[in-house]
């Protein structure tokens, strides 16, 4: 058993099966009689050459059932078990940057971050989809109209592909807002700052915002700006149940007044995203978000945007 696990070990996550059983350390904790929807083991972050037969080679086992998920975390030679109903998941962050991936599950009281090689992207995406089907209200919290008219927007080939893939999984999904990659220098009134930002190639990165009325889905590139000579290959996707959102604010950036920051709050934390202030999708997006039941919208900027 030890040699079999060692022979198949690598930086990728693996679905637990007869060929790839649960690691011995975790087996005593897998006691449920319910057949899981999916069970995945996530490896330690060690290089293959440093692995040895008989070592504890996996840090997590995540098992999805119909009503809840169970996370087993290795703590030295012991195991910590956390069981969580899907309704207690506040946010999912799925990020990839070349060969490095991470899945962050934010629960009520804590968060788990599962690192993996993007060789196993399809398996992680399958896990995310199973959770998304169960963690939000089945009835739509928001009424979403037509897609944002993006006929005049320039989207990257990569984002076009992501949008097509996401929307193919849900006919109700609509694009609510879009921020294209934008050079910041052209927005500066100061000639010096305009020249400086032009010289260093400072550009606001692309982001897109979608919803089916049950969840808010935000795709960005893991950072706000990029600079000349420093390509960005990362992509992040935030998934948040609409019913878990407790606050929305829109505020001008203190360092760059040409930037409008959107902050979304839920019990799992605060998440910020940037737009150029003249982005034509901000007003309609703000109106939709302001309809979230029980929303705490403290910023005066929200009111101005909603009534613009």
Q: Count of helical segments? A: 6
Distance between the termini: 65 Å
Major sheet: size, sense and barrel closure? Answer: 7 strands, antiparallel
Poorly predicted regions are none
The helix content, as a percent range, equals: 10-25%
Rg, nearest Å: 22 Å
Shape: globular
Element pattern in H and E: HEEEEEEEEHHEEHEEEEEEEEHH
Using DSSP, what is the number of strands?
18
Q: In terms of structural class, how would the helical and strand content be classed?
A: alpha+beta
| Strand percentage | 25-35%
What do these coordinates show?
The longest helix is centred in the middle third of the chain and has 15 residues, at 121-135. This protein has helices spanning 2-7, 121-135, 157-168, 191-200, 282-289, 300-306; strands spanning 14-15, 38-43, 58-64, 68-75, 78-85, 91-97, 100-106, 111-117, 174-179, 182-183, 203-204, 207-211, 215-220, 225-226, 234-241, 247-252, 259-266, 269-276. The chain is globular, with a radius of gyration of 22 Å. The protein starts with a helix and ends with a helix. With 308 residues, the protein is of the alpha+beta class. It has a 7-stranded antiparallel β-sheet with strand order 8-7-6-15-13-12-9, with helices on both faces. A 5-stranded antiparallel β-sheet has the order 1-2-3-4-5, covered by helices on one side.
At a glance:
This protein has 308 residues and is of the alpha+beta class. The protein has six helices and 18 strands.
